[in-house]
């Protein structure tokens, strides 16, 4: 493969930015595509990074937001309340694209989260209402209960401030960095 065989969007800042949001857009559980799984890192109570796998539920390029759902009793909600800065990393194998996003996260609960709650499958509902709360030490692997609790359901809405995009297409890798504050103009960087 030579550069002429590469997708054209890998060598144009605007197209690469749009392709990156295109990778995020279809990421709903019902879409069943690989890139719906991402890693979210928050800042722990001790100041150290805390990373965990999450499922992207929605993306809105116009608002530059991503939605993840969670049990409101998880430690990550406490971490976000203390410091809303977060990072999200996603790898999309089919287009050889890595996205590293930074921004701030808001925890949305109550009536504002109920449309998303109503859209969950019956099998997913008990994931939001685990007792004791997630992360609590237990004496056996099954020493907990699951019971749907809409009051424990939360949306984590990340407002993206920066996007570091790496295309690993061969023979030429490309990398660009975008910032919200400059209108997402983008700057090429060495991969």
Write the layout of secondary structure elements.
Blueprint: H1 13-24, E1 37-43, E2 49-60, E3 65-71, H2 75-82, E4 85-92, E5 97-108, H3 114-118, E6 130-131, E7 145-146, E8 153-167, E9 174-179, E10 187-189
Antiparallel strand pairs: 1-2, 1-4, 2-3, 3-8, 4-5, 5-8, 6-7, 8-9, 9-10
Task: Tell me the structural class.
Answer: mainly beta
How would you characterize the largest beta sheet? 6 strands, antiparallel, barrel
Number of helices: 3
Would you report the number of β strands? Answer: 10
Q: Report the radius of gyration as a whole number of Å.
A: 18 Å
The rough form would be described as: elongated
The mean pLDDT is 90
Relevant terms:
191 residues, mainly beta, two-stranded antiparallel ribbon, 39% strand, elongated
Description:
Strands 1-2-3-8-5-4 form a six-stranded antiparallel β-barrel. Strand 8 (153-167) and strand 9 form a beta hairpin. The protein is built from three helices and ten strands. The chain has 191 residues and is mainly beta. The longest helix is centred in the N-terminal third of the chain and has 12 residues, at 13-24. It is elongated, with a radius of gyration of 18 Å. It has helices at 13-24, 75-82, 114-118; strands at residues 37-43, 49-60, 65-71, 85-92, 97-108, 130-131, 145-146, 153-167, 174-179, 187-189.
Task: Give a quick rundown of the structure.
The protein is mainly beta and 191 residues long.
